[in-house]
Amino acid sequence: MFLVGHAAWAYVISRSLASVLRVRINPYIVMLLGMVPDADILLQEYIRHRSLTHSIIFWSIIFIPFFIIYRKRSIPYFIAVIQHIMLGDVIVASTNVLWPWKYEMGMGFSLLSPLNIVMESIGLGLALLLIIKYDRVIIARSRGNILGLVVILPLLGSMLYLFTTNGLFFLDHIIGSSINTKGMIIRGSQDMIVVAMILHASFSILLSVSILQGMRALLTRMH
User: Fold this and answer.
1) For residue 105, how many other CB atoms are within 10 A of its CB?
2) Mean pLDDT across the stretch 57-73?
3) Interatomic CA distance for residues 82 and 77, integer angstroms
4) Is 62 left (phi over 0), alpha (psi -120 to 50) or beta?
């Protein structure tokens, strides 16, 4: 998935789980955690994409102290990371989910496949519904909404890179099937790019409103 799908599904699943466990979550932190495994894209000189940071074993070890200290309150945050691997990345290409052991899992679809874009759209739609039901504070005047910056900055950064020619060729190298032998983007993939951009723009607008509300609340308090 694109980062927008990872963030949206992280919120949907973590929010639903938090309701079952009757614990509180910070929506911005779970969204950020949903995107964190793809930080390896920036570290490809040192680690292979979809290896260390996409390992269930790695994240299980990282979360041990949180499980001990925060107990069930840490579970939605752990699941926010794991869903990135077991939902979004199972659809697209394949992932070494048990690194350092070699166990590849994935359906092999392109990031620009209709299935992936539909899943991203569903995730964002569900996220908006759950925000309205549980987290209306996201669009209210609250200082805590400044935390929306930790979500929108990587989201916008990925848009600036991925929706350029170099970015799309990078994606094609990783997951294939969106660019033909002449180096041209396939027609169907062009349509999916437009939809993906709309999803990113919609989510960015929501986060922008949230951040502005947070800044207004902070300025009001300072005065």
Assistant:
1) 13
2) 97
3) 9
4) alpha
SS3 helix, strand, coil % of the chain, rounded to 5?
Answer: 75, 5, 20
CA-wise closest residue to 15 among 152, 146, 151, 129: 129
Residue 183's pLDDT band (boundaries 50, 70, 90)? very low
Residue 64 tokens, joined: 């041990």
Measured at the alpha carbon of residue 57, what is the angle toward residues 55 and 61, in degrees to the nearest 5?
A: 120
Which candidate, 89, 88, 70, places its Cα nearest to that of 25? 70
Distance spanning both ends of the chain, measured CA to CA:
43
**Could you tell me the two tokens for 17?**
């789980």
What token pair was written down for 40?
Answer: 């390896």
Whether residue 179 is predicted with pLDDT greater than 80 in this model: the reply is: no
DSSP class of 164: S
Nearest CA-CA partner of 29 in 60, 66, 68, 55: 66
Give dist(CA 179, CA 117) in Å, integer. Answer: 17
DSSP string, 95-150: EETTTTS--EE---B-TTSHHHHHHHHHHHHHHHHHHHHH-GGGGSS-GGGGGGHH
Helix axes 114-134, 3-21, angle to 10 degrees: 40
d(CA 134, CA 157): 28
